[in-house]
Amino acid sequence: MSIQDVADYLSGPFTEIDGWCDPYLWQVLAPLHEAQEALGVSGPVAEIGVHHGKLLIGLMKTKGSPSGNLAIDAFDLQQFNIDGSGEGSIQMLQDNLARCGYRADALRLVRADSLTLGAADVPDLRADAPEGFTFVSVDGGHEVEYALSDIRLAMALAMPEGIILVDDFFAPDWPGVTEALARLYLHDRPQFVPLLAGYNKLLLCHRSHRQGFSRTLVQYIKDHLNTRVHAKVVTLFGYRLINVEPDRSQPFEPIVQ
User: Fold this and answer.
1) What is the value of pTM for the model shown?
2) What's 3-246's CATH class?
């Protein structure tokens, strides 16, 4: 990751691209990226529900991934956008990629109703990332069935060392996302489990890496963010996770070193 590239993006194009993403999210994405690198892991990123690429481009900048990235969205197939949560534009996404220095082939676009994608589609979706994706964002349909399907698909797309970001966790306007997570963890034991809640997202990681990633985040918060965030370890669905709320009264620094 080039810290300057990420900082330039967050202070520049990020502020102008239409979409919904908290820039303070990079307070925890930066140490998670570093933890992945310490494991020898690198690679492309993916997002389900892309809109115009506000978060996705930031993830691409974070991982320094010039190719192999994946975007799944209904785009103009708005008959499948049953909750009216945003109308993505392929042209605007491509324009935003270009203005941020990416070639058209940096991102594979899959125009589809994500509810129709399942296990049989995973090998093709991972064709450019056979080891899986490092970061997978879930920000598609907010109805229970869509959110649950998208989260399961994200778990199949992510590498074991990957991080899944589920948007609108506990968001009062989109209760279906929280209900989907409750159904998932109260009725099943998936391999990806809660790691951190904050920034309007729930971050998930593989069971085998939960302790390592958790230790990294706790230490990073203690060393760099102790005056910038309120952090507390809580229990959700039987899993211990870190709840983080940034202090927005302080000047924003994309990445604290």
Assistant:
1) 0.94
2) alpha beta
